[in-house]
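Lecture notes, unit on protein representations.

Consider one protein chain, 195 amino acids long.
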Amino acid sequence: MSTPTIGVLALQGDVREHLVALAEADALARPVRRPEELDGLDGLVVPGGESTTMSKLAVTFGMLEPLRAFVRSGKPVYGTCAGMIMVADKLLDAREDQETLGGVDMIVRRNAFGRQNESFEAAIEMAGIPGGPVQGVFIRAPWVESVGAAADVLATYGGHTVAVRQGNVLATSFHPELTGDHRVHAFFVAMVKAA
């Protein structure tokens, strides 16, 4: 596959930044708002934003089950921040009615690193990313409380897991799309090409 087509779930969140980062990583990127727009995609990004709102909008617009089917199809999916919450099998500190797509056998704690005014940036050593640490932007970020045997921890910060991969699904607590460094997106594009 020369240039993969990767969708960015565009219900809510930092869609534009992911579209730019994916284009810089040599993918054809397009926003996805309706179930039929999942057709023909080689991969999908679930962006950062507000996970409760994203969950509600996915239900309202009939996207929840098509998105779950996409994850189960084996096509690569990458979730950042709220997207990490969306691809988790289990959540802590979430509303009882909050839905997820699943895909990674992990328990994720919402807003674990604190509120908006406690946002921060940190250098993150991430397995599979050459060239030194990536700059992680943490905004009301989750962390992973625990992972199952099938999930691989790719990065930690302050003793907490902040990047994981399980098969076709990649997830980070932080926002690499908000920096000029597109190595994490290039890593995901390579996953898509290899799938």
